[in-house]
Amino acid sequence: MAQNTRTTPAGTPTNVTQNHTKGGIGESTLRPDGTLKVTGEFAYSSDMWHEDMLWGQTLRSTVAHAEIENIDISEAVAMPGVYAVLTYDDLPAKMKNYGLEIQDTPVLAHGRVRHHGEPVALVAADHPETARRAAAKIKIDYKELPVVTDEASALAADAPLIHEGRDDHHAGHVPHPNIVHRQPIIRGNVEEARKRADVIVEGEYTFGMQDQAFLGPESGLAVPAEDGGVDLYVATQWLHSDLQQIAPVLGLPPEKVRMTLSGVGGAFGGREDISMQIHACLLALRTGKPVKIVYNRFESFFGHVHRHPAKLYYEHGATKDGKLTHMKCKIVLDGGAYASASPAVVGNASSLSVGPYVIDDVDIEAIALYTNNPPCGAMRGFGAVQACFAYEAQMDKVAAKLGMDPVEFRQLNAMEQGTIMPTGQVVDSPAPVAELLRRVKARPLPPEQQWLAAGEAADVRALPGGLSNTTHGEGVVRGIGYAVGIKNVGFSEGFDDYSTARVRLEVINGEPVAMVHTAMAEVGQGGVTVHAQIARTELGVTQVTIHPADTQVGSAGSTSASRQTYMTGGAVKNTCEAVRAKALEIGRRKFGSYHPAWATAELLLEGGKVVTDGGEVLADLADVLEGEEIDIELEFRHRPTQAFDLVTGQGNGHVQYTFAAHRAVVEVDTELGLVKVVELATAQDVGKALNMLSVVGQIQGGTTQGLGVAVMEEIIVDPKTAKVRNPSFTDYLIPTILDTPTIPVDVLELADPNAPYGLRGLGEAPTLSSTPAVLAAIRAATGLELNKTPVRPEHLTGTGA
């Protein structure tokens, strides 16, 4: 790092240290940041403060598609307390766009805005209210253009092109410029297989736009440095990806953009793209002062991508004895105005669209569209969520048409280890789909009419409508539904997915201490806990310090795709093993002549000592390390994957698969259309539970997020104007503790031999099957088809679309 004289901002992350005599892999050690968070003492990025800092504000477009005819900043510039007002013309570098894969997103709009809420200008002022008022004084003249909002308007022969003159690597493989990416998968012969089917079931499904709804809004602090660079403290999911996008548009070499992860208040995919990072840096470099930007909730809805809304068209065939013959589907994802992660989401949606079932003959097509709707990208489940909603509804329909039990029908067709995926990839680790279904079905059902448990007076909290006191049980019907899903783990399709860990082992105050340094973004998943557990297990020390994540160590990749425990955990494990080997080498050099076991035995580090595999103590680790310091940085990669063929979709595209099943029990007030989810039982294979407390928390959290999109969560976009109608938590509803049911969790541990410790990425899988399980239960209670998420009261009462 370049040496700069600077004041460290208040709230800057510091080392996190825990002392444990045990606390290794397999134990439910507590999070080192947990107490701070629940007591309100944890410093999030929005809490950061720097002496003499300014406040940044973004002016965003009020229309979804328009030409910018003029921008007048004169009144804003003239306001007292305003230090800078920036537009596209003030950008310092030749590169003026950014993007995760396709650099199609402008730092500030130039000539044209493509979605509601697109950034157009920036303001820096000495007070946040001054900055907001100055931004409001900027006058923009728009000439509105026709909006593209759906598949029909996007792919029409005369459709306005969202991006003219595309030259990205997907442009040559799509049938229309408004298609970001297209991935077909063809295997077998669907037309021949259709002839063998005794029943054929078709369905059309609509999945709404879901927001990640993290509670900590986008925020960060940019501090200009004496070397002409900038230090950025920010809440993000992927420090090094941010760096690769930020440095070029600032006109700076990467080493002059130094990034440190600040406290993150949730992510779920919504922080994988750039939000305020570049804007804060631009203002800091222009003014020569630290600049802090914090979005309010309204702006947050425009400041990050969302889950792709989707239309899904499915056909399944089956024989009369219940074997699936074929599947044909088309998945249309709305990517919004900019590409973000849409190409990879298309790859996931297509390759996982068959679900965890054996179907030899498939014809699959998935596309993502460019439209004038809000940009969509990464969100927990990443394309597999939308597909699971559709194929699980189809499984219930086929089972019903055959007169079969829906769980037994699924088990009959369930994949297992050795199954060949539609892409031709062999599932080479445990795939206990049938067992997961058996477990959730076998679990005892919750008692009926629980609201009467305390006596004759109804406890309305247990009823649909809750404390609104709309019913005391009249018209309430119970429904039970099942679903199971499949999700990939890690980055796929040939991406060079790796993570880096640096581990230092030294003696401090007579005790061996390990320092673990990675760039992993801790967004709430508990990675800092697991890294310390790995270090204790591999190095036999009690004290482990976790260094703040920053870009002064190699990339850890994104905290997404259920990959961090596998990838950065794998990097920490490998690096600790190298450190251990070096420590034993030092021990042999110092003490090898004192005991023959130094040369002949299998040696371990346990409890701060060097021991043989038979338990004999050879030396204290502190004595071995006296006068020594071991410091090693290594990269870890999973086994390579392949890009899917652009015609057939064949290829070993994924690293690992993970599975979860749910049983939903609901009570529905059929007269008012109100739903109470009573229980969401789940079973999931996690390979190896490194920390069972964290495992259960992740599964319950993912389950709840799936519940939200089933019955309440949706960003509403006006189909005529492409404007967002509900950018607030007043109108965009998420489950609270009163909405969240009992979530019993059944954990399987069937090791994946290719993964560190045999673990299986687990954070996303429960988000898949909880949604269709809830929908299936509501269908069972009402007899309605319900092919759209979320289910609203008017859908159940027949009073709305």
From TrEMBL:
Name of the protein in question: Xanthine dehydrogenase subunit D
Gene name as annotated: pucD
Boundaries of every Aldehyde oxidase/xanthine dehydrogenase a/b hammerhead domain copy: 39-146
Compositionally biased spans, kind Polar residues: 1-21
Molecular function, one GO term: xanthine dehydrogenase activity
Pfam family, any one: MoCoBD_1
Region (Disordered): 1-32
Alphabetized InterPro entries for the sequence: Ald_Oxase/Xan_DH_a/b, Ald_Oxase/Xan_DH_a/b_sf, Ald_Oxase/xanthine_DH-like, AldOxase/xan_DH_MoCoBD1, AldOxase/xan_DH_MoCoBD2, AldOxase/xan_DH_Mopterin-bd_sf, Xanthine_dehydrogenase_dsu
Residue ranges the record marks as coiled coil: none
Domain of life where this protein originates: Bacteria
Entry keyword annotation includes Oxidoreductase: yes
The species this protein was found in: Streptomyces mauvecolor
Entry-linked PANTHER family: XANTHINE DEHYDROGENASE, XANTHINE DEHYDROGENASE SUBUNIT D-RELATED
Tagged with keyword Acetylation: no
The protein's Enzyme Commission number: 1.17.1.4
This protein's UniProt keywords: Oxidoreductase
